[in-house]
Amino acid sequence: MKAVMPDAGYWIEANVVSARECNDIIEAVSQNMMSRGRAGARHLMNNPTVKTVATGPRLLQIARRALGEGAVPFRATLFEKSDRANWLVVWHQDTALPVESRVESPDWVSWSRKAGVLYAHAPAWALSRVLALRIHLDAATSENGQLRVIPGSHAAGVLTDEEVFTIARTQEAVECLVPRGGVMAMRPLLIHSSSKARTAAPRRVLHVEYADSLQLDSDVRLAIA
């Protein structure tokens, strides 16, 4: 299965990662207890297994379709819904990026640190150079809190919460059902949400973000996280 939707801001590909590789990733991340929280784990690019998968030819080939030959992974996060951690995610865009140092620019706002990594909410021009690949370690079904998206909404740029909710109320959403080992590629400004799972079966996703270059501007460089 391969659903390529370049203008929609996302697409889905099946059979990218094997079942054995999914198990290896789950085991590797489970051993990294320092970075784990109730809903998953962040800052996993330094995990050897995660790094190997993220820099491997299959994922790089997918990322290069949107970002060009310079595509490079910079951040990896595990999202895990289960009977122990089941949460609702409201409609939103992903606008925070990890950076190496602070810049004095009105384009970069809401500075913070998470586990020692510096973050800021980025402008649309920077986010347009980013693509997330969601590696589904379990199948995403209608029962386990799958992602829902508003196709094409990434083209509207960075929006306020009110603008996001208005679009979500007035435009049709699509459920993103992805088999185990499949990958969903999505732009960070694509408006998306997820419901609580209605089953105890886990829904684990390794969310790896790529940019066309770590150096986004003369004074802005992405941090590896």
- Which bin fits the share of residues in helices? 10-25%
Q: How would you name the CATH homologous superfamily?
A: q2cbj1_9rhob like domain
N-C termini distance? 31 Å
Count of the separate structural domains: 1
Please describe the topology of this protein:
Elements: E1 2-3, E2 10-13, H1 19-31, E3 36-37, E4 40-41, H2 48-54, H3 57-67, E5 72-81, E6 89-92, E7 96-98, E8 109-114, E9 117-121, H4 124-127, E10 130-136, E11 147-149, H5 161-170, E12 174-176, E13 183-186, E14 192-194, E15 203-211, E16 215-217, E17 220-221
Antiparallel strand pairs: 1-2, 2-13, 3-4, 4-5, 5-15, 6-14, 7-9, 8-9, 10-13, 10-15, 11-12, 11-14, 16-17
Give your account of this protein's structure.
With 225 residues, the protein is of the alpha+beta class. It has a single domain, classed as q2cbj1_9rhob like domain (Jelly Rolls). The chain is 20% helix and 32% strand. The protein is built from five helices and 17 strands. The protein has helices spanning 19-31, 48-54, 57-67, 124-127, 161-170, and strands at residues 2-3, 10-13, 36-37, 40-41, 72-81, 89-92, 96-98, 109-114, 117-121, 130-136, 147-149, 174-176, 183-186, 192-194, 203-211, 215-217, 220-221. It has an eight-stranded antiparallel beta sheet with strand order 1-2-13-10-15-5-4-3. The radius of gyration is 17 Å and the shape is globular. The model has no long low-confidence stretch (mean pLDDT 91).
Short description:
With 225 residues, the protein is an alpha+beta fold.
Features:
eight-stranded antiparallel sheet; 225 residues; four-stranded antiparallel sheet; single chain; alpha+beta
